Each structure stands twice: as structure tokens, then as C-alpha cells.
């Protein structure tokens, strides 16, 4: 195995699990797909992957899958309870370094944290909502992705007309504590920001920050009072 090659175990061989497997295989990683539904466990769908017909919530199945030898476990079933149980077992019984869990029902999202062994929770409804809001909102802070274990998140703010930062250099701005500007998207192209890059109206700014700093970040980049002064209806 190459030094950068991972062994990834994916529970749930439906359309989501298979799509993840194909992407990982294309990037040179080893993948084992687990599913208890014989209709979904069809090796011809992803022939490069290994397959196991079993219930991923049973210890015997996880032992057969050699979960302790995996770098990442992905709980991608359509059942939130199963995804939580698998994540907890992966962490507590097998010491898996990283777990990623699919959240099917947004009402259950609060449970997907380190207490259940989840390092990263991915909520498809949340991501879809973020994409919708990102497309129509200017000056609003949109939470795109959460890193549950670190209590950090990736957020996006589109720089509105009238922002105090329009025209300023990145290096001249003091961001809130625990906040990092990681990318600027301008004219549909990503820019890795340097100190000398000037921000422009309409730039999509991507930050890594904490929930506690989100209100301050939004007020800093797009203060309501300044927006109202230039006649933008909030």
C-alpha cells in the first residue's frame, strides 16, 4: 500500500455509498463496501471494490471486515440509527482514526458528534440548503460544512456592495479569533488569498471559523447598518 493510500470501509452500498466508493477508488484508495441487502451488494456495480454482505451494526461483521485495519469508516446507510451505532463501534471497539457519518434526517443532526464517535457529519439537506442560500444571498453568512469534533465550520459570505472591506488588502484585516480566510471565489475561479490580494464586491469569501465567532464575522464583513446606509434592503 502506498504511504498516501487509505483503506476505507463504507457501510451502505446504495447510490450514496457506491458514489463515494467510485471516487475513492479513482483516487487510488482501497475500499470495502458493506451492506445487509443482497440486492445492493452487487460487485459488478463497483468491481474494483471489495464487498461484504453483512449487518454493519454487528461486531462479528465488523471483525470480519477488519475494521481495526481501516483508516476511515464511512457510515452511509439510509438509517441514522445504524450510522450512529457503526460510528460508535468503529471508535470505541476498533480505534478507527476517522469516521464520517451520513445524516438522513436533519432533526437527528444534533446527535452526530464525538459522543457517538462521529468525526464528521454530512447532512445532504443541510448542504442543499446551503447551496440554495449561497445562490440567492448576498451579505448573509452561509454555513456550508461542519467539522463536528473540532467544533469548527466552513462558512461563506458574499461581499456586498457597501462592505467596509471592499478594496482592502487581505493582509490589512484582523479577522475574529479562530477565524481563517481560506479562499476567495471570483468570477467562478478560486483564489488562494495572499496578504496583497484586494477583496472586491461580489467576491465569495470562504472561512474556517467557530460557531461562537460566526455572528462577529458576519457583522465585520457585512454590517447591517452599513448595508442600510447604501440602500440595500435586508
Note down, in words, how this protein is organized.
- It is a single chain.
- By secondary structure, this protein is an alpha/beta fold.
- Helix content is 25%, strand content 26%.
- The chain has six helices and eleven strands.
- Strand 1 (7-11), helix 1 and strand 2 form a beta-alpha-beta unit.
- The radius of gyration is 21 Å and the shape is elongated.
Give a brief rundown of this model:
This protein is of the alpha/beta class and 234 residues long. It contains 6 helices and 11 strands. A hairpin with a 2-residue loop joins strand 9 (180-186) and strand 10 (189-191).
Map the helices and strands.
Elements: E1 7-11, H1 15-26, E2 30-35, E3 50-53, H2 59-64, E4 72-75, H3 80-92, E5 98-103, E6 120-123, H4 124-136, E7 141-147, E8 152-158, E9 180-186, E10 189-191, E11 204-210, H5 214-221, H6 224-229
Parallel strand pairs: 1-2, 1-4, 2-3, 4-5, 5-6
Antiparallel strand pairs: 7-8, 8-11, 9-10, 9-11
Amino acid at each position: 500500500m502506498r504511504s498516501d493510500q487509505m483503506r476505507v470501509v463504507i457501510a451502505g452500498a446504495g447510490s450514496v455509498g457506491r458514489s463515494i466508493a467510485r471516487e475513492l477508488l479513482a483516487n487510488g484508495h482501497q475500499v470495502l463496501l458493506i451492506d445487509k441487502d443482497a440486492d445492493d451488494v452487487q460487485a459488478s456495480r463497483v468491481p474494483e471494490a471489495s464487498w461484504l454482505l453483512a449487518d454493519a451494526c454487528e461486531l462479528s461483521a465488523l471483525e470480519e471486515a477488519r475494521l481495526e485495519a481501516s483508516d476511515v469508516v464511512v457510515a452511509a446507510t439510509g438509517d441514522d440509527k445504524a450510522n450512529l451505532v457503526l460510528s460508535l463501534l468503529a471508535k470505541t471497539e476498533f480505534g478507527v482514526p476517522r469516521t464520517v457519518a451520513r445524516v438522513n434526517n436533519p432533526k437527528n443532526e444534533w446527535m452526530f458528534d464525538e459522543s457517538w464517535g462521529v468525526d464528521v457529519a454530512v447532512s445532504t439537506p443541510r448542504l442543499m440548503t446551503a447551496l440554495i442560500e449561497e445562490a440567492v444571498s448576498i451579505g448573509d453568512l452561509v454555513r456550508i460544512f461542519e467539522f463536528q469534533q473540532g467544533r469548527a465550520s466552513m462558512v461563506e459570505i458574499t461581499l456586498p456592495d457597501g462592505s467596509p472591506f471592499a478594496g482592502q488588502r487581505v493582509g490589512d484585516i484582523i479577522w475574529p479569533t479562530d477565524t481563517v480566510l481560506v479562499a476567495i471565489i471570483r468570477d467562478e475561479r478560486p483564489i488562494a488569498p495572499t496578504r496583497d490580494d484586494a477583496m472586491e464586491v461580489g467576491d465569495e469569501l470562504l472561512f474556517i471559523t467557530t460557531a461562537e465567532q460566526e455572528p462577529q464575522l458576519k457583522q465585520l464583513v457585512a454590517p447591517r447598518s452599513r448595508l442600510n446606509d447604501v440602500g440595500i434592503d435586508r
